[in-house]
Specification:
- About 10% of the residues lie in helices and about 45% in strands.
- With about 725 residues, it is mainly β.
- Strands 30, 32, 33, 35, 36 and 37 form a six-stranded mixed sheet that branches. The protein has a five-stranded mixed sheet with strand order 3-10-8-5-6, with no helix packed on it. Strands 14, 15, 17, 18 and 19 form a five-stranded antiparallel sheet that branches.
- Strand 51 and strand 52 form a beta hairpin.
- It starts with 7 loop residues before the first helix and ends with a strand.
- This is Fc receptor-like protein 3 isoform X6.
């Protein structure tokens, strides 16, 4: 063991040897340090144990003979091999000490280690008479060795070379002769022992580490020598090259790393290197086992668009492992081969079709091992739902049963739907298997407005578009009233029949009746009631009623019976009214003539169809059942007229109280009319009122005979 190496590992090993009781080798030192001497001289031998300062008694051997001395130092005069041992050491190497009786000896120092630089000394017994010394190695004269007391040998080796020297010996003062010394084999000790390579563990497994140690031993006298260590496999140097560390750590061994290993120890200063014997290292392979497939994110639950990572791992297994991933019903998803106990496969941006069962397999040439199946679920956020409204008719009416249907075309179930009316939740419903849901309710007046729904499957709520619903309310039974009341009404007054339905969606059309004969109608575009005015020339007797209709069915009022009779309030007022109307009639005659001429030309030009249907510019023949109303917009060339409410006025001529007239049209000039007034009265700015004779009233006749029926057909437009 190289216990003198300054490294802490060697120090630890040396202490361990001492603790375990493994003795170190003793060393014999000579004084003087020559292995040869002349007889009669003495040499002191010292037994040394460099690793134990307390040596105790020393045992000496001369050859095989035990000497009876126990001291550390002995003085010897006899040739032979000497060995010693202390109580804490093993025997030293034998040391040859020669005592020669020759006249000339060649001395070499002791101890000598390979690589040392030493001096050989040629010495005569009578040194003063010895001259011309020459040194030889293996019979050849050494260079620069003539006539010198010693010669220097550099970097000696253990090559078993023989050395001798010659010298001239003077005798009888005048003669000299050449004498040759005995051959000398220098006892060159190894500077360090050949290293021994050890591997820990001796049979490494794939994927595991191994430690290579190159062990050798320096003699105590050479403890300061620095060594370099190199490690090889099949002729290839390992690691980063040679270093002062006697260990090499290989973190991971693979099966391909099996082979022949050795190490080399080198003393750079001495140029001495020694190799260890070769050792075969076989790397053991462990089959894979316990294959597990995991996912990231854990649990295998993903949202559409996320990335899925499949992680395949093995608990045991060495060497190169091939991992593969598989999905049920599909081919191999991927394959990776690497020196690792786990591998990953990424599936980016998963879709709904990526859901399913997966497994993985691992193989290191012992056959594939398959993991358990795992399930991957992919959930999709809901799309914007579509809201549809289903009603039993085109226009929703109070009392109708309406169905709201909300459906998201995409999204993983279960889906929770909520229904809103003007952003107020009406209710909710869940679709466990996806699809849409419905919400049914009966319409009331308050259900008009905007409807919407939203869908949520836990991945975010999505809202539908808004759907508007207008709930139409059927009209209620209208109420007919007389204004002013009958108790305050006299003959000659203008009275007003007022009809109003308290409930119902506009627009509402009101019809007024006298004994089931239509007097006229009026439209209330924004709801509320409508009125019909009557002038009472004589009396108001009979049953009156009205009805209201907004397209959902007419509702009738109660029949009201009126019986207003008596004398007029002021005859003068009536006469004045008659005269005033008479004066205005002169102006109306000219206008009426123009209108009659216009109507006549229209008929001549085809205004009346062959079937007798009036054209857009003709007014139908008035009757008691309906008023004559034309639509000016139906003619592209007629002037735009503003229609006014029909206001029947009875007995405008007080002299003929049996004649009844009704206002049927009030024509006012509009902007459009002004632009196209070339064919009409450009200077006439006043409105034109057209009246129609309705019937003759016979005061003394309360019956409705056939003679009077003919009277109803005599109509005349009077301006």
């Amino acid at each position: 063991m190289h216990c003198s190496h300054p490294g802490w590992v060697l120090m630890f090993l040396c202490l361990l040897l001492l603790i375990l009781g493994v003795p170190s080798k003793a060393v014999i030192l000579l004084d003087p340090p020559w292995s040869a001497a002349f007889k009669g001289e003495t040499v002191t031998l010292t037994c040394m144990n460099f690793h134990s300062p307390a040596q105790g008694d020393t045992t000496w051997y001369h050859g095989k003979d035990l000497l009876k001395v126990t001291s550390r130092n002995i003085r010897m005069e006899e040739s032979g091999y000497y060995q010693c041992k202390t109580q804490r050491s093993s025997f030293s190497d034998p040391v040859l000490v020669e005592f020669s009786s020759d006249q000339l000896i060649l001395q070499a120092p002791h101890p000598v280690f390979e690589g040392d630089t030493i001096s050989l000394k040629c010495r005569g017994k009578e040194e003063k008479k010895t001259s011309d010394k020459i040194y030889y190695k293996n019979g050849k004269k050494l260079k620069n060795s003539y006539n010198t007391d010693s010669v220097t040998l550099k970097s000696v080796s253990r090559d078993n070379s023989e050395y001798h020297c010659t010298a001239s010996i003077e005798f009888l003062s005048i003669f000299s002769r050449t004498i040759t010394s005995k051959p000398l084999k220098i006892q060159v000790q190894e500077l360090f022992l050949p290293p021994v390579l050890t591997a820990t563990p001796s049979q490494p497994t794939e994927g595991g580490p191994v430690t290579l140690t190159c062990e050798t031993q320096l003699p105590p006298q050479k403890s300061n020598v620095q060594l370099q260590f190199c490690f090889f496999r099949d002729g290839q140097i390992l690691g980063s090259g040679c270093s002062s560390s006697l260990e090499l750590q290989i973190p991971t061994m693979w099966r391909k790393d099996s082979g022949s290993y050795w190490c080399m120890a080198e003393a750079m200063a001495y140029r001495i290197s020694k190799n260890s014997s070769r050792s075969q290292i076989h790397v053991q392979r462990i089959p894979v086992s316990e294959v597990i497939l995991e996912t990231k994110p854990p649990g295998g639950q993903l949202i559409e668009g996320e990335n899925l990572v499949l992680i395949c791992s093995v608990a045991k297994g060495t060497g190169t492992i091939t991992f593969s991933w598989h999905k049920e019903g599909t081919r191999n998803l991927g394959r990776k081969t690497q020196h690792s106990l786990l591998a990953e496969l990424q599936i980016p941006t998963v879709k709904m079709h990526d859901a399913g069962r997966y497994y993985c397999a691992a193989d290191n040439n012992y056959g594939p091992i398959i993991s358990k199946w795992i399930r991957v679920t992919v959930r999709s956020p809901v799309s914007h739902p579509v809201l549809t409204l289903k009603a039993p008719r085109a226009q929703a009416v109070v009392g109708d049963m309406v169905e709201l249907h909300c459906k998201a075309l995409r999204g993983s179930p279960p889906i929770l739907y909520r229904f809103y009316h003007e952003d107020v939740i009406m209710g909710n419903s869940s679709a466990p298997s996806g699809g849409g849901v419905s919400f049914n309710f009966s319409l009331t007046v308050d259900h008009s407005g905007n409807y919407s729904c939203d869908a949520n499957n836990g991945l975010g709520s999505q809202h539908s578009h808004r759907v508007s619903l207008k709930v139409i309310v059927p009209v209620s039974h209208p109420v007919l009233t007389l204004r002013p009341p009958a108790a305050q009404t006299k003959v000659g007054d203008v009275v007003e029949l007022h009809c109003e339905a308290l409930g119902g969606s506009p627009p509402i059309m009101y019809q007024f009746y006298h004994e089931d004969i239509t007097l006229g109608n009026s439209l209330a575009p924004s709801g509320g009631g409508a009125s019909f005015k009557l002038f009472l020339p004589t009396e108001l007797v009979g049953n009156y009623s009205c009805d209201a209709d907004n397209g959902l069915g007419a509702q009738h009022s109660e029949v009201m019976a009126f019986n207003i009779t008596g004398t007029p309030r002021n005859r003068t007022t009536l006469v004045t009214a008659g005269i005033t109307v008479g004066l205005l009639s002169f102006l109306g005659f000219a206008i009426a003539a123009l209108l009659l001429y216009h109507f006549w030309t229209q008929r001549k030009s085809g205004g009346l169809s062959a079937a007798g249907t009036p054209s857009a510019n003709d007014c139908q023949e008035p009757s008691l059942s309906r008023s004559c109303i034309t639509n000016p917009q139906e003619s592209s060339h007629s002037e735009t007229l503003a229609l006014m409410e029909l206001q029947p006025v009875y007995n405008v001529n007080p002299e003929e109280s049996h004649v009844v007239y009704s206002q049927i049209r009030n024509m006012r000039h509009t902007k459009e009319n002004s632009a196209n007034s070339a064919r009409m009265h450009q200077k006439d700015k006043e409105p034109v009122v057209i009246y129609s004779e309705l019937k003759k009233v016979y005061v003394n006749d309360s019956s409705r005979g056939t003679d009077h029926e003919d009277a109803t057909g005599n109509y005349e437009n009077v301006p």
